[in-house]
Amino acid sequence: MPEQLTAADALIGDIGGTNTRLALSAGGRYFEVAHFANAGAAGLDVLIERYLHEHQLVAAELQLWLAVAAPVRGDAVAMTNLPWRISAPELEARFGFRRVRLVNDFAAVALSLGALEAADWVSLGGGPGAADAPRLVLGPGTGLGAALWIPAAGRDFVLATEAGHVTLAAGDEREAAVIAAARRRHGHVSAERLLSGPGLSELYRLLAEVEGRAVDPPPPAAVTARGAEGSDPLAVAALELFFSLLGGFAGNLGLSTGARGGVFLAGGILPRLREALAASAFRTRFLAKGRFAAYLDEIPLALIVHPDPGLLGLAHASGLHTTSPAQ
């Protein structure tokens, strides 16, 4: 077995609604990253078994740390956008890991903030920020996640949230019409309903409905591709609305959490759209909070472009607990 693998302290995994990333970690670093499509697997245990077998690993020598796209309220979770149930006791019993720990996926991203380097993020404006103030991470993927890193409470203190499921607010009449159309179909319109991968396709359909047309919306990747290249006016409008609504949502969270240390964007969608994001109305809408525009203007706003911030955060966290049980 390669020396790097024998030195591993933990198997770590970032479990999203669409993809799973597994890796090994030691000393705050991670390596041997493997990517899996969730749709082709019966459950997470199948992917873990495959990874252990391919790397000739002994589970009893490792911790298992998993970042999951779901609320974590105990030792078992039901994934929000995936029909999987993940149980820490069951995984420990089946494989024999030394310990199994579950954390929210955006809590893991928040844990990475202290380890990110200058090349790992792109500035979108704002001031220098307050070093001891909360830092907010949020972003769309299959769902919409958000978490807080609170450095004043300790380097690894994070607060997971389910802010993606708050009621989405409109910033103008057009947005109000789109949200009203979504409400007629879905009832409650959460931020995640429209600010996610599936939300891009839904925005495409809703914009057509508001214009009195019925369309078969393309998949999210097609909406972003056509919108970014300008080849489909409806996709252009959907992408513009996506950025505007996301900016308003981020501004609301920045105010709600007092995230004067910074607001960092992450997730599976935005890093691939960095030029379109920077040219969009996102920052304008982030600041559009009346008398508190100046408050938000002082907050550093950035896009995380590190390929695996969730794994980086897990590597940091697992490295802090190599011998003593997690609290």
Query: Main sheet, how many strands, which sense, barrel?
Result: 6 strands, mixed
CATH architecture of the largest domain: 3-Layer(aba) Sandwich
Overall spatial form:
globular
The structural domain count equals 2
Helix content: 25-40%
Approximate strand percentage: 15-25%
Q: N-to-C terminal Cα separation, in Å?
A: 32 Å
The overall average pLDDT, rounded, is 93
Q: Could you state the order of secondary-structure elements as H and E? A: HEEEHEEEHEHEEEEHHHHHEHHHEH
**Sheet/helix structural class:** alpha/beta
Q: If helices are DSSP runs of H or I spanning 4 or more residues, what is the number of helices?
A: 13
Q: How are the strands of the biggest sheet laid out side by side?
A: 8-13-12-9-10-11
According to CATH, what is the topology of the largest domain? Hexokinase, domain 1
Number of strands: 13
Q: Give start-end ranges of low-pLDDT stretches.
A: 323-327
Give the CATH class of the largest domain: Alpha Beta
Rounded to an integer, what's the Rg over CA atoms?
20 Å
Descriptive tags:
alpha/beta, Nucleotidyltransferase, domain 5, Hexokinase, domain 1, 6-stranded mixed sheet, 5-stranded mixed sheet, 13 helices, 13 strands, 20% strand, globular
3D architecture notes:
Helix content is 39%, strand content 20%. The chain has 327 residues and is an alpha/beta fold. The strands form three sheets. The protein has a six-stranded mixed sheet with strand order 8-13-12-9-10-11, sandwiched between helices. Strands 3-2-1-4-7 form a five-stranded mixed sheet, with helices on both faces. Helix 4 packs across helix 13 and helix 7 crosses helix 8.
